[in-house]
Amino acid sequence: MTSALRERLVAVAVRVAGISAIALLLVIFFFLIQQGLPALAEVPLPDLIGSRWYPIEGTFGLVPLVLGSLLVTLAATLIAVPLGVATAVFIAEVAPRSVREVLKPFIEVMAGLPSVMLGFLGIAILAPELYHRLRLTTGLTAFTGALLLGWIAIPTIVSVAEDALDAVPRGYRDGALALGANRWQTIWRVTLPAARGGVLTAVMLGIGRAFGETMAVMMVTGNAAVIPRGWGALFQPVRTMTATIAAEMGEVAGGSTHYHVLFLIGILLFLISLAVNLVGASVVFRARTRAERILS
Amino acid sequence: MRFAARLLPTSIVLSVLLSGVGCTPGSPPGPAPARQAVVTKGSDTMVNLALAWAEAYLEVAPAVEISVTGGGSGTGLAALINATVDLANASRQIKPEEIEEARANGVEPVETVVARDAIAVVVHPANPVDHLTIDQISAIYSGAIGNWKEVGGADRPIVRLSRETNSGTHVYFLEAVVRRGQQDDRTLFAADTLLLPSSEGIAAEIAYNENAIGYDGLGYVTDEMKVVAVGANPAGPFFLPSVETVNLGQYPIARDLYIYSAGRPSPQAGDYLAWILSPPGQALVASLGFVPLRQTP
């Protein structure tokens, strides 16, 4: 076989793989639309933005579910992003080589922990601990879910952000140090901004992981479909969109209104994560153009 | 095992095909005799019971293959209507709409009561409340009562625990307790009721939370819960759930468990049903924490 022919074959194979990934995504999207949109015709809009979710009596208010998901994800992000980025900086910039070689693989193994197992730990240990220590009415709260989700998101953030920091050229750090910057100034003013795109991707992936997580959340948030009001709601039970789909899809009759509404929730999940990613991408893009302007 | 079975979404089919196990040692080589299969599907409450029956029946009639699948009472009845199963397990009675649908499909569902199930109302062991009326339980779960002191307990908020809405137990509890059996009652569970995906979720929460009240099948009660005596009148009497109080009609929150067949069951399905109702079948009912039917002498 000539090398030109082999080259062509590889190019075709890569193209097919790429196109099939996009095609699969489109098929999933069209399936979601096809199964979910009938819900808009079957349930009047005022009912969908109602405050009560009780599907077996035909009450499909989505507001508590959407707000529940957003509350848990936001709280998890606030926990996971500072810790995750700080850990990545520690591993990439501060820790000696030997420590780094242990920590990096260890954190990557943590990223692969099945979330059911974490949920089980959440039920068995975290919920009772929070109940006793914080004197809550129940340990199954949005906060419990956020802690677990933070835990689940941190390894993803650390792993990706550390790679980005590692890719910053050595010369940047040397230059900053030569100019008299101390170690902290070098990290905060030079290395971290230079790795901004990768760190932001890490944060987005972490948020996505938290937002889409199902099993652990279903086990520890109590799944009460109440609209969270104020900061106190963080220590009350909530019901997330993902947990609702997981808990109810199993027994719902195919083609019923309830079935279509569950797919509509799937579309909402899809749209919200798309929005988060678009915002992230636009921030990364803007950062790059500004950097280019300065360099030119 | 029970944890996994209860926890996983019920869509994950709990299918145990007992095929192949039925080969009796010493059966003659050559073409095996035609296997007889009985396909059953339905209630998740009953799935452990149905598995136990199917396994034990293998000893009685090795040539009959019985497959057991969960998915919920509605799922099982839908399969019966579509004639894809021989028997449907149901923790609730068939609805009139379902009977109509079945008849339209040329299927006449025949009902057999195969066991009974008591729903226990449970609280934390340290909770001083030891008896409640149906009206009080209804008021607690609908949100009218929110503090234990209103029913004779400590000054603590009440945390309501329930199974998910797809559970037959949830529906039964809603109709029989929250709505007190009244057809036109539209009372709902309070919106802040915790809906837990598994019996183990309820057990774990009751074990540490002194504010909590929960309910579940008698077979799922553990040592870390306190069972509340239930009565119809505030003056009493109050009864704890047990085989005796259920069979005497004293304990008020008990339901029948059913198996539906499509018309007259096939000979092997009929034999299986008869065996379930016989003393060995009913002994398994008791060992799994359900209430066996009273044997008619």
Strand-helix topology:
The complex is a heterodimer of chains A (296) and B (297).
Chain A: H1 3-36, H2 38-42, H3 45-48, E1 53-54, E2 59-60, H4 63-94, H5 97-111, H6 115-134, H7 142-166, H8 170-178, H9 183-194, H10 196-212, H11 215-220, H12 241-248, H13 257-295
Antiparallel strand pairs in A: 1-2
Chain B: H1 2-7, E1 16-17, E2 36-42, H2 47-60, E3 64-69, H3 73-81, E4 87-90, H4 96-104, E5 109-123, E6 131-133, H5 134-142, E7 159-163, H6 168-178, E8 194-196, H7 199-208, E9 212-217, E10 226-227, E11 229-231, H8 243-247, E12 254-262, H9 267-277, H10 279-287
Parallel strand pairs in B: 2-3, 2-4, 6-11, 7-8, 7-9
Antiparallel strand pairs in B: 1-3, 4-12, 5-9, 5-10, 5-12
Helix pairs in contact in B: 3-4
Give a quick precis of the structure.
With 296 residues, chain A is mostly helical. Helix content of chain A is 76%, strand content 1%. Chain A is built from 13 helices and two strands; from the N terminus they run H-H-H-E-E-H-H-H-H-H-H-H-H-H-H.
Describe this structure in words.
The complex is a heterodimer of chains A (296) and B (297). By secondary structure, chain A is mainly α. Chain A has one domain (37-295): Orthogonal Bundle (MetI-like fold), CATH 1.10.3720.10. Chain A is 76% helix and 1% strand. Chain A contains 13 helices and two strands, in the order αααββαααααααααα. In chain A, strands 1-2 form a two-stranded antiparallel ribbon. In chain A, a hairpin with a 4-residue loop joins strand 1 (53-54) and strand 2. In chain A, helix 4 (63-94) packs antiparallel against helix 10 (196-212), helix 6 (115-134) packs across helix 7 (142-166) and helix 7 (142-166) runs antiparallel to helix 10 (196-212). The model of chain A has no long low-confidence stretch (mean pLDDT 87). Chain B has 297 residues and is α/β, with parallel strands linked by helices. Chain B folds into two domains: 36-115 and 257-287, Periplasmic binding protein-like II (D-Maltodextrin-Binding Protein, domain 2, 3-Layer(aba) Sandwich), CATH 3.40.190.10; 118-254, D-Maltodextrin-Binding Protein, domain 2. Helices cover 31% and strands 22% of the residues of chain B. Chain B contains ten helices and twelve strands. In chain B, the strands form two sheets. In chain B, strands 1, 2, 3, 4, 5, 7, 8, 9, 10 and 12 form a ten-stranded mixed beta sheet that branches. Residues 1-33 of chain B have low confidence and may be disordered. Chains A and B meet through helix 6 and helix 12 of A and helix 3, strand 8 and helix 7 of B.
